[in-house]
From TrEMBL, chains A, B:
Protein name in UniProt: DNA-binding PadR family transcriptional regulator
Gene3D superfamilies the UniProt entry points to: Winged helix-like DNA-binding domain superfamily/Winged helix DNA-binding domain
Listed GO MF terms: DNA binding
Entry superkingdom: Bacteria
Length: 178, 178
DNA sequence: GAACGATGTATCGCGGCGATATAATCACCT
DNA sequence: AGGTGATTATATCGCCGCGATACATCGTTC
């Protein structure tokens, strides 16, 4: 997931760690944190896997005095891997925390995959909604006031999300046959 | 967090692992998963810490034939620990995933702590809301259509959550001076 | 000139998850 | 009587991501 996000960002341009984190933060800050505690280990993992490489030290031009920073760029295998992750978009793609990340890279995502992700996400949210609905209407085993309140709020918000997804899907469809 | 949930459940009655997980699942299934992969390790952690103990084997009455199951109950230290976790309710308490869990145990939570948690949560959601608002109104650096859509939806849903929290808080206040 | 906040890289331990193994019991069908 | 599958039940493994923390440099402000 983090892997996906980093590959996605490096797809746009080579970058160093701190910048990756910053871009990620103001792209998705409200939805996913992405701390340094995973950033650097993940970068090294990607590097070991040959998906990214440290770019040669072509600075020196202007900005030395700057400071030791390592600029990474995608290798061909990295690009391939990113495409593969998109193609294999499956169940875990539409989890709460994955979905936002994938949305953020939608402009880089083929139209058919976009559709698959949106519909997968919708099904997933609909399932949650049904669970909540069932739990709320089920009489018997009297349910704690606060828990009930939590479920009410959850139900309402999943309903809204489904409506929102429907709009996105409709828009997608209309664009598809334009 | 998981620790808090388990102590909270065992506060009601002694139980074995599977049952804990089931109760948790239909109490909070839509909000938090709580897999077996954390359940049993956490139980052992609690046990090592002396917060829970395996209950003596007073079955044999009816139900042998059943099958090896370990019933845990809270020790006095366990109860103390739970109270302590409530008293120390701090910033991490109002994270997305903690908050729901704490709500589920609100009937067991002192009124002043309830208030603190609700207000903390509200502040937290308000901050997220402001972040989203700022990001959306900020012109410049044209923002990807899908990301904008994500932020719009996020903004709307945080606004609704704040309103919901306000209602809860108001209700709490009205009850307080009844 | 010192204090502070941003830039920048990095590690450590831990909490939680998904996948997986194992096994007995129960309900149902044939 | 036998098979099949769902449910009850405990448990481990490796991985991912987080929060805390450390450290060093840079630019700005008092």
């Amino acid at each position: 997931m983090f892997e996906f996000a980093l590959l996605g960002l490096l797809h746009e341009a080579p970058m160093h760690g701190y910048e990756l984190r910053k871009r990620l933060h103001d792209l998705l800050g409200a939805f996913r944190a992405f701390s340094y505690g995973s950033l650097y280990p993940t970068l090294r993992r990607l590097q070991r896997a040959g998906l990214i490489v440290e770019e040669g030290p072509e600075e020196s031009a202007l900005s030395w005095g700057r400071r030791a920073r390592k600029v990474y760029k995608l290798t061909p295998e990295g690009k391939e891997r990113f495409a593969e992750l998109l193609a294999n978009a499956g169940p875990q793609t539409w989890d709460d925390d994955s979905f936002g990340v994938h949305l953020a890279f939608f402009s880089r995502t083929p139209a058919d995959v976009r559709m698959r992700i949106l519909e997968g996400r919708r099904r997933c949210v609909e399932e949650r909604r049904e669970g909540l609905r069932e739990r709320l209407t089920r009489t018997g085993e009297q349910i704690d006031r606060y828990t009930r309140e939590l479920h009410r709020q959850g139900l309402e918000s999943t309903e809204r999300e489904v409506r929102w997804l429907n709009e996105l899907i409709a828009h997608e469809k209309s664009e598809q046959d334009e």
